[in-house]
Design a protein that fits this description.
With 180 residues, the chain is of the alpha+beta class. It folds into two domains: 119 residues, PH-domain like, CATH 2.30.29.30; 49 residues, no CATH class. It contains five helices and eight strands, in the order H-E-H-E-E-E-E-E-E-E-H-H-H. A five-stranded antiparallel sheet has the order 1-2-3-4-5. The protein has a three-stranded antiparallel sheet with strand order 6-7-8, with helices on one face.
């Protein structure tokens, strides 16, 4: 009866385990409250690389799986209710926002914090955790200087595309090249 109103934490089903990529770990697995969708509530999985939403339809006979990479999320918002919470993801390249609705309140803050860390590139094993994984933007000009790269990473840091730690490491690497 409890899952009817507040949702619940769940085990990771085989279909989700099979779609995980190398070094990807599920950090949170929750089921939406049944009061939102009585028969087949959505299941939400937060990994160190992305957000996966498993939507069951037709009494669970049809499965729709959507995933959203942290790098594609521009902004997050949480709406705390009395017994459950909703998280809204503002996407960079989609017209519509993504809503993770009817999440159990007791884990919603942890899920929200994990999503924010993933968006900021601070999750261990995430796509943009280390500077080696960050692609330096390049133009076709042959004489592009490190100062141009520095201004680019400053803009990316200001937009929240890279974390402070990554920005500082990249800046250090770029200024090291100019000292030679």
């Amino acid at each position: 009866m409890k899952s009817l109103f507040i949702g619940k934490e769940i085990e990771i089903p085989k279909v989700i385990q099979d779609m995980l990529v190398e070094d990807e770990q599920v950090l949170h697995a929750v089921q939406q409250a049944r009061s939102k969708q009585l028969i087949t509530p959505d299941r939400i999985f937060i990994t160190n690389k992305r957000i996966i939403v498993n939507k069951l339809r037709m009494l669970g006979l049809r499965k729709n799986i959507e995933d959203y990479r942290f790098v594609d999320v521009a902004n997050t918002n949480i709406d705390h209710g009395i017994i459950r919470s909703d998280i809204r993801l503002k996407m960079r390249f989609q017209e519509n926002d993504v809503f993770l609705e009817a999440i159990p309140k007791k884990v919603s803050r942890e899920i929200f914090k994990t999503i924010q860390q993933g968006v900021a590139g601070r999750l261990e094993g995430s796509e943009f955790e280390t500077p080696a994984n960050v692609i330096y933007p390049r133009t076709k000009k042959a004489k592009e200087s490190n100062e141009d790269h520095l201004s680019i990473i400053q803009k990316r840091y200001a937009k929240g595309e890279i974390s402070k730690r990554i920005y500082q490491e990249m800046k250090k690497e770029l200024t090291k090249d100019t000292k030679k």
